[in-house]
Write a structure and sequence with these properties.
Layout: E1 2-8, E2 12-19, E3 24-32, E4 39-45, E5 51-55, H1 60-74, E6 82-89, E7 100-101, H2 104-112, H3 121-134, E8 140-144, H4 154-157, H5 163-169, H6 178-192, E9 200-206, E10 210-216, E11 219-223, H7 246-254, H8 258-267, H9 270-275, H10 280-288, H11 292-316, E12 321-325, H12 326-331, H13 333-340, H14 352-356, E13 362-364, E14 373-377, H15 381-397
Parallel strand pairs: 1-6, 6-8, 9-12, 12-14
Antiparallel strand pairs: 1-2, 2-3, 3-4, 4-5, 7-8, 9-10, 10-11, 13-14
Helix pairs in contact: 1-3, 6-15, 10-11, 11-13
Length: about 400
């Protein structure tokens, strides 16, 4: 079975083609700057070297046609080999607790969630509609970033605001990075040799966007991101948790408009706001050269992660493993060590030698006798979308 995974952004199209029997990517790539005078297409066939070409894609439809031409040249029997197309959709609101076979009803619900994800759902929807038009004979499945966290209890997802804001306008915590948290939870349980249903985990997805999840028996019971991806951890350019009244202060004393405050919180804060960099490698380099603002950014970033570890340990009561994933979580040994310092009372410790070694696809970085395993697990959101798409097909056939 071969499944194509599509992730349509506002001006990009990321894709992966999976052989589900081997769970390997046969083809993966990214088309960027869609709608501009010159677009770029970078792709890789299997484990071969990446190739890049310049082209012009006026819209997602033309980008998909470029991809489909490549697929026809790659697959012996062309597009007829595709069993399904899995689409990443950022926000499913309260409509979707699992992947959904795309029909007009599903499209209507994705449209209804646009006010909750105005930067992402319209692009996701555009990619879906173009793909349905160009590849109508193949089942299409929507996989939602928010679905994994729809198991949060009401006392965890509700905000202490007037009830009608929730009941009439959907103001609640939804959580994001669900496909990543779901994938690494399964891989962590496999690594530990435990059934997922008997495994309690704290999963840390750390990249330019970052979130934590408390997972009890494979079920998400709390997560750091909220109604939007702004809540929670300090991130590359997002502020994370701050006093909500700062917005009122900025408006009253500096005369800032709502759009300016929105841009400040999402695009100019976090690590970028503190030290002028949002790439963790650049922040480390500045800190090593003696830059105090970079040192502060690193300290703040690690401290806020440690606070969530403690909070979610209390929520779970028992933790089998603390799991680091995402671009930063998988590659930043200093951060992993710092986040776990002082947590021996919780049974959490890091072995420096194991922490310094590459961990692919999964490895323990804690001492063998630690009550809580500390793991590094390479995430694969595209593969998780493909797996969920395949599961949806099985349910459909039954």
């Amino acid at each position: 079975m071969k499944i194509l995974v599509l992730n349509a952004g506002s001006s990009s199209l990321k894709y992966s083609l999976f052989d589900m029997a081997e769970r390997t990517a046969l083809l993966s790539g990214l088309i960027e700057r869609i709608g501009e005078a010159e677009s770029s297409h970078r792709y890789r066939l299997g484990a071969s070297a990446a190739q890049q070409q310049a082209l012009t894609c006026r819209d997602h439809g033309q980008a998909l046609q470029t991809l489909f031409s490549l697929l026809r040249a790659t697959l012996p029997s062309g597009l007829s080999e595709l069993a399904a197309v899995g689409h990443r959709v950022v926000h499913g609101g309260e409509f979707f607790h699992e992947p959904a076979l795309i029909d007009r009803r599903v499209i209507a619900h994705i449209e209804a969630a646009i006010p909750l994800a105005p930067l992402h759902n319209p692009a996701n929807l555009s990619g879906i509609e173009q793909a349905l038009h160009l590849l109508a004979e193949v089942p299409h499945v929507a996989v939602f970033d928010t679905a994994f966290h729809q198991t949060l209890p009401d006392y965890a997802f509700r905000y202490p605001l007037p009830s009608q804001l929730y009941s009439e306008h959907g103001v609640r915590r939804y959580g994001f990075h669900g496909t990543s948290h779901a994938y690494v939870a399964k891989r962590a349980a496999d690594y530990l040799g435990k059934p997922l249903a008997a495994t309690n985990l704290i999963t840390l997805h750390l990249g330019n966007g970052a979130s934590v999840a408390a997972i009890a028996g494979g079920i998400s019971i709390d997560t750091s991101m909220g109604m939007t991806p702004l809540e929670g951890l300090m991130m590359g350019s997002r502020c994370g948790d701050i006093d909500p009244a700062i917005a009122f202060y900025l408006a009253r004393t500096l005369g800032m408009e709502l759009d300016a405050i929105d841009k400040l919180y999402n695009k100019a804060s976090g690590c970028l706001g503190v030290c002028g960099e949002n790439d963790m490698r650049a922040i480390h380099a500045k800190a090593e050269s003696g830059d105090d603002s970079a040192k502060l950014a690193l300290a703040m970033y690690a401290y806020r992660i440690k606070k969530y570890i403690g909070a979610y340990y209390a929520v779970l009561g028992r933790v089998d493993a603390l799991v680091f994933t995402g671009g930063i979580g998988e590659n930043d040994a200093w951060l992993r060590q710092t986040c776990c310092e002082g947590l021996t009372a919780f049974g959490i410790a890091v072995d420096p030698a194991a922490n310094a070694a590459p961990a692919k696809p999964a490895a323990a970085i804690s001492p063998a006798a630690s009550p809580v395993a500390v793991l590094v697990v390479n995430t694969d959101e595209e593969l998780e979308i493909a797996l969920q798409t395949a599961e949806c097909l099985v349910k459909r056939s039954n």
